[in-house]
Predict the structure.
Amino acid sequence: MKRIVMTVIAAFLAAGVLTAQEDAASITQRIEVTRQYVPELGEAQKLDFPPRMADTVTLKPDISYAITPTPWKSVFDTEPIAPVAISTAEYRHQRPFYLMLGGGYPAQSRLDFYAAFSTPRDIRAGVYANHVGQWAKLENERGTKEPASWTENGVGLYAGRDFGTRSLDFDIRYGYNYYTTMDKVWTGYMEPENIYYHKVQTSLTFGDAFTDLSRFNYRFGIAGSLWGTVVENPAASAFADFGWKAGRRGAVVVGASFEGAWNDWDTGDWYAALVPVYRLRTDRLSLHVGVKFYYDSFRLSATDCGSHFFVLPKVGVSYELADAFIPYASLDGEIGTGNYLELAGLNPYIHEADIAGPKRAELRGGFRGDAGDVVTYDVYAGYLIGELPYFLKTGETFVPRLAPVNLFYAGAGVGLKLPMGFGLQAGVRYDSYNNAGNFWSGRGGRVGMGIPEFTVTGRASYCYRDRFSVGISVEVLGERRFASLQNLDTAVPATVNLKVDAEYKTGPRFSIFAAGDNLLNRRIYRCLGYPALGANAVAGIRMLF
C-alpha cells in the first residue's frame, strides 16, 4: 500500500517529468521496451489504452490533474503490450454496462462506454467506445480568431479466456483522429489541409501474469495496425517475456521485443531488443541489474538510411534504512522509433514525416519514503544525455527533427494525508535546459524543444466518506523555447494554470462530476502557435447499469 501511495503522489507532483521509482521486485514492471507510450491529448485518457473496468467499477474520475507532457521525456515512457485488463470477475454479471457522458463550455464533448457480455467466469468479452472533442475558435498569433477544433475517437472489441494461471486476450479497435490546423498559410493555389487519420489496431497475447515466479513464467504477444488517411501504412510489434526464480530471493526476467512502422511500405523505422535482467529483493535491499541490447534500422529516404547496434545499462538499487528514508539510484537508457504515429502522440500537428530513432541515457538518484501513511516524499536529481525529437514550426504544421540534449535536473515532491479527509500535495522540478549547452545552430538560427526550466505543482483536496470529493490544483510552468522558421528564437512565457474538480456519488452506481481548467484564463500553449482553451469547464455523469 505504501508503494502504491508513493507512486500516485509522484505521478501528480513531479511536473509531468518525474518517473515513479520502480520497485525492483515487481515483475509487472519488468522490461518496458515493447511499445512507445502515446500521451493523451487533453483529457482523452483512455483512447490509447485498453479499458480498465476496475476503475470503472468504482466510478473513478476520468478528468484528472495532469501535466502536459514534453517530448524529450514522454517519447520514452514505454509500456508492454498488455491484454485488456478487465477485473470484473465479481461484478460483471450484476452491472455489465458503464457510461460516462459529459460536455463543457466552450464546446467540448466526452464519452466513455463499456459493455461486458454475459459469459462464463473464465471467459470475458465486451465492446467499448471512447470520444473526446473540442469545438471552439481561438485567437491565433495574428490576433484573429479561427477554428481550433479537434477530436479523438475509438471503438473496439475485446475477448479473453483464462487457462488456469495463464490467459489469452484479444483486442481489435478502430480509431479516428482529426485536428484543425491554425495559422493557415496559403502556398500557391492550395489551402493547407487539416490533419486527420484512421487507425485499425489488433493485438493478441497469451501467457502468465508474472506475479508468481516460483514456477517458470512466459508471455507472448503480437500486435499490428494500419493507419493513414486511407488506412495504408503498417505498424507492427511483438514481444516474448520469460521469468523464473533464481535463488531464494532472486529472479531472472528476459524480454525480447520488436517494433516498427512504415510509410507506404517503403520508408520506416524498426528496432529489435533483448533485455535480460536479474532482480533481488531482501527485507531492505531491492536490486536489479541488466543490459539492453538494441538493433535499430531506419530508411527515411534513398539517402537517409542506416542501422545501429546499442548496448545500454539497466541498473537500479534502493535500500530501506527506514520506511521514511529509502535512498535509491538508477542508470538506464532507451531507444525509440521515430515514426509518425509516435511523434503524433507528442504533437498531433506534425507533417507526416519520420526521423531516426530517439535515444537517451539517464543517471538518477535520490531518496524517498513515507511516515505512517501520513507523509510521502521523493527528492531526486539526475543527468540525461541523448538525441531527442523537437518540432520545427513551418507555417501551420510542424516538421519533426532530432537534436542532441544534455541536462541536469533536480526536484522534489511531497504529499500529506491530513485528518478528516483533507490532503495536500506539492512538487517542484528544475531542468538546466535553458543554457547555451542545450541550444545548437539550426538552419538560420537557434532552436529549442519546449523543455521548461522549472515547474511547480500543488494540489489541495477534500473527500467526505467516499461520497463527495473536491480538489484545487495549480501548475506554474517556466519559460519554454521552441523552433520555428518564422521566428528563429521563439519563447513561450511562463504561465500559471489553475484547475478545480469535484465529484458527488449518489450511490455505488451513479455520480456527477465537474471540472474547471485554466480558470485564470491565461494563454497556455499545447505547442507553439496552438493555445489551449481559456477558462473552461466540463461536467457530466458516470453510471453503472
